[in-house]
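Hey, can you fold this one?
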Amino acid sequence: MTDVSVSPIAPSQSAPVADWFALLKPRVMTLVVFTGVVGLSLAPGQLHPVLALAAILAIAVGAGASGCINMWYERDVDALMRRTQQRPLVRGIIDPAEALAFGVVLTLFAVMLMGLATNWVAAFWLAFASAFYVFVYTIGLKRRTPQNIVIGGAAGAFPPVIGWAAVTGTTPVEAWLLFALIFFWTPPHFWALSLYRCEDYARAGIPMLPVVKGKAHTKRHMLAYTLLLLPLSLAPVYLQMAGTLYGSIALGMSLGFIAHALRVLRREEDAAARAMFFFSLFYLFSLFAALWADHLLRSLL
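Sure. Predicted structure:
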């Protein structure tokens, strides 16, 4: 039943396509899909272009569906946070029951598409990632522990594993290295956001690390993760997944990430944390783009 107390609009009749699309968290989906594409591209073997496009679509739809279910579950806290108060469910544009059904149907479609177009190993990991994001992170961890993003961040690290499995039907160490890059990138990325959105999270009762342990404690942990990412980002070179082009970019970007973490550690103003958050997006994109470019270059030589 539509909650008319939130909005006088009848959701099923007036919700524009843009609001339904917003449920899929398209900005988050973009980076997720890109890392999945890189995993698919780096995997040895060939996949028919049509089947590759189907696999990419499945990753995109699966990621979007998880975001939709996340919005359905978190609509109460979204109403308390400034950055999420304009989401469709908070505004009463879309009925919660319809949003949940939308997310569930899209999840089933994505998993079936992946299994039929590629293989059921890739479909399994897509289903696992979706279930992990919804049940482990969204429902189990986010409102209960400051380690929510440390553990729950694994959900966003699966796309390159799924992409690799779509081509080969296997998940070797190289695929899990791509997983590890995203997994260890996630905490400093989200903690930077939570530093300058600390009041929002506190108001919503979400125990992000700065809310529970304080900003100084969070900043030290952010620096630790960026230091860990330095050797980890160079691991593809050691495993001969990539060469000098990638190694040079990874080294420079990782040193830049550490520099941002040191700046955040020394300064109190939100501007430093905000700058680190946006740099972190560029950091992950650059690493995966460099892996892809390095792979293409080496295949031409």
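Confidence is low (pLDDT under 50) at residues 1-10. Let me know if you want another pass with a different chain boundary.
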